[in-house]
Amino acid sequence: MAMKIRLARGGSKKRPHYAIVASDSRMPRDGRFLEKLGTYNPLLAKDDERRVVMNVERVQYWLGQGAQPTDRVSRFLEAAGVVAKKERSNPKKAVPGKAATERAEAKAAKAAAAAEAAAAPAEESAE
């Protein structure tokens, strides 16, 4: 059985509240789970200790049984010091989009034209 440690959404519309659960990966997101391991409340401040509450012993048990945490849960586990921090690579994140590249080129061309125009009168006065 493929196990996951993931978030199960609760709460009303626009007021999310998540349970951190150990579940069979074939079950739906909010469906049947084996054990509730903690809670996550994204509406609380980031420095609030009640934002993420986990039973670390049970999380370690499920990790020992082969359960794979989802990306968001693995970030919680890294912050709690349960698992080692992974190196994430998104090389395209810092590359500007097409529109931003065009704006930068236009700005550079305009600056070069202004520099040429400013340099031309200085040359004439030197002669």
Give descriptors for this structure:
single chain; 127 residues; alpha+beta; S16 Ribosomal Protein, Chain: A; 2 domains; five-stranded mixed β-sheet; 21% strand; elongated
Short recap of the structure:
With 127 residues, this protein is an alpha+beta fold.
**Under CATH, the topology of the largest domain is which?**
S16 Ribosomal Protein, Chain: A
Compute the gyration radius: what is it? 26 Å
Low-confidence segments, given as residue ranges, are none
Which shape, going by the Cα principal axes? elongated
Number of domains: 2
Bin the helical content. Answer: 25-40%
Per DSSP, the total helix count is 3
CATH superfamily of the largest domain: Ribosomal protein S16
- Tell me about the biggest sheet? 5 strands, mixed
Element string (H = helix, E = strand): EEEEHEHH
Query: What is the quaternary state of this protein?
Result: single chain
Mind explaining what this structure looks like?
- With 127 residues, the protein is of the alpha+beta class.
- The protein folds into two domains: 3-80, S16 Ribosomal Protein, Chain: A, CATH 3.30.1320; 89-127.
- 38% of the residues lie in helices and 21% in strands.
- It is built from three helices and five strands.
- The chain has helices spanning 56-64, 71-80, 98-126, and strands spanning 3-10, 17-24, 35-40, 52-54, 68-69.
- A five-stranded mixed sheet has the order 4-3-2-1-5.
- The longest helix is centred in the C-terminal third of the chain and has 29 residues, at 98-126.
- The protein is elongated.
- 16% of the residues are buried.
- The model has no long low-confidence stretch (mean pLDDT 87).
